[in-house]
Amino acid sequence: MQFNRPLSDFTVTYVRSMARTDLNTLTNFYDTLMWPVISSNSYAPANTDVPHRLFARGRYQPTTRWLIAGVADWRTGFPYSVVDERLDFVGPRNEIYRFPNRFTADLGIEHHFTGFKWKPWIGLRFYNAFDSFIPADVQNNLSSPLFGSFYNSEIQQIRLQLRFER
Questions:
Q1: Is 64 left (phi over 0), alpha (psi -120 to 50) or beta?
Q2: Measuring CA to CA, how many Å separate 80 from each of 44, 45, 110?
Q3: Residues 6 or more apart in contact with residue 130 via CB below 8 angstroms
């Protein structure tokens, strides 16, 4: 059995970073909000600041007809600011509170079929394969009884994958 490409390909990267920004930029307020909350200006961690990130991806092809692929991503959570009942910021902005750390893994397995004009790869892809809790929103109002609750997690998905080669 002869392979034209490597049997496996794995990459792991780690990034340590810091993103700071002006939190009262013009685009934060003159967009789609009718009554934006404008506070005193602050220079602090950006809403997308991720101090630690570990990313891994890999492909393994045990035979010319089978392919196993995966991606794993772990990172610290995004920062957020806390507001009171009048929507005034409380404490330093984006300095104290963060979303939970997140881990997600996407996995896939495919089979290569031959004998057709277009040689298809057919398989399954599992997105958020371990059904990790990855929230997109937080209740950041101190006066709410649900203060600190996280919402709107990415859902686990299983999809049919179909690719064609000539």
A1: alpha
A2: 11, 9, 40
A3: 103, 104, 105, 156
φ, ψ for residue 102, nearest 5 deg: -125, 145
3 state DSSP class of 72: strand
Structure tokens at 123: 């398989």
Report the candidate in 83, 55, 80, 70 with the shortest Cα–Cα distance to residue 135: 80
The Cα 4–Cα 77 span in angstroms is: 41
Which residues, including other chains, have CB under 8 Å from residue 29's CB and lie 6 or more apart? 36, 38
- The type of residue at 33 is L
pLDDT at 30 over 70: no
- State the DSSP H helix or E strand holding residue 28, giving kind and residue range, or none if neither: helix 26-29
- Please list, in sequence order, all residues whose beta carbon lies within 8 angstroms of the beta carbon of residue 26, skipping any fewer than 6 positions away: none
For residues 126 and 107, the answer to whether their CB atoms sit within 8 Å is: yes
DSSP state of 27: H
Query: Tokens for 51?
Result: 């101090």
Exposure letters 132-150 (e unless 16+ CB within 10 A, then b): bebbeebebbeeeeeeeeb
**pLDDT tens column, 122-155:** 999 999 999 999 999 999 999 999 999 999 999 9
